[in-house]
Amino acid sequence: MNSEDIKLLREFVKVCEAKPEILHLPELSFYKTWLESLGAKLPAKSESHGHSHGHGCCGHAHEQEKETHFEPAEPVVEDSPESDLDIDKDGVIDPDEDVPHTMGDESMEVTDEMLEQSSSKRDEAMSAIAEGNLDKAVEFFTEAIKLNPVSANLYAKRASIYVKLLKPNAAIRDCNKALELNPDSAQPYKWRGKAYRLLGEWEHAYQDLNKSCQLDYDDDTNEARREVEPKAKRVMEHKRKLERKKEEKELRERREKIRKAKEENEKARKDQEARGHGPGSFYGGFPGGMPGGMPGGMPDISGLFSDPELLQAFQDPEVAQAMQDISANPANIIKYQNNPKIKKIIEKMSKKFPGGPDIGNDADQDDDRSSVPESGHSSAHHNIPSQPDID
């Protein structure tokens, strides 16, 4: 066993001391069994999801380290698009809610002396990592960030410790800040991808890990990317399916609106015809014929409705009532012979539709008859020559 292996073992023991619940992880069952065989008394299994994986702190791509790094418990992430999917939640943990550490003051001027002090604090943080003291490493990185708040690398380093401490939200905050300072840095994408993986946000995890590999490939990042890829693709396919369903639903709704609009238009057209404004009827109640006994069938109704004077007259309630009255009983036309307004309308209609009675015919005939003497005696009496007196 070389010095590097001993260092890793020491680091693992430190993590076990800080978070003994990791001994109950399935992949460490062999180690747990061995400890129990030696008579070791292990703490009871906790319901908490806060397991630690400090044994991966040095960034070595050992298979066991990466597996335990993704294997805490299985909470259900509410309101996530994959909540309807049957996706294995192994390694997903509850989000951390710790008070965020300082992000530093970017507006301050960083002197050469401050840069040296920041570098010194960074070295102390790396030493703390080597000793397995991750909490102390966070403190040293925080001091380094205060002295040099524009270093994207320092934020990424602190984020890597947060991931190992199973504090994904804190890691994501640091990675976001690092990417603000340097959007082309691979490390923030790597650690943010691993943080998303701990939260079960498979699609975001895959996108970040994939981006990190594109910027600066390393085996550890690629292995994590391959681990989340199948789940991420299932989530993406699920989202595409939901989007297709949404589009299909919207299309059906648009078609239904069009269909209903057509039905309503057709119903309105038929209602209008039924009220008498369509073919085969005349002005609100004269089906089959014209008012005043005019011949049915309406020989040229277009001529009627092209006459502005008639159209305007039909808007008059008095005219409309008269037309209804005459339509019900053509003999009632005589009632309007002394109404110049109605008489004028009927005379105009009679000219457009020859063959119907004239409102003035009977009256004129009566006038003519009244002017003729009831007897021709008077005239004849005057025209007959006087007879001779035979006496």
From TrEMBL:
The keyword Repeat applies. GO terms for molecular function: Hsp70 protein binding; protein dimerization activity. Residues 76-85 have a biased composition (Acidic residues). Residues 60-72, 86-104, 224-235, 244-276 have a biased composition (Basic and acidic residues). Keywords: Repeat, TPR repeat. GO terms for cellular component: catalytic complex; nucleus. Pfam families: HipN, STI1-HOP_DP, TPR_8. TPR repeats lie at residues 118-151, 152-185. Residues 277-295 have a biased composition (Gly residues). It comes from the Eukaryota. Residues 45-104, 224-295, 347-391 are annotated as: Disordered. Residues 307-346 form the STI1 domain. Homotetramer. Interacts with Hsc70 as well as DNAJ homologs and Hsp90. Belongs to the FAM10 family. One HIP oligomer binds the ATPase domains of at least two HSC70 molecules dependent on activation of the HSC70 ATPase by HSP40. Stabilizes the ADP state of HSC70 that has a high affinity for substrate protein. Through its own chaperone activity, it may contribute to the interaction of HSC70 with various target proteins. This is STI1 domain-containing protein. It comes from Helobdella robusta (Californian leech).
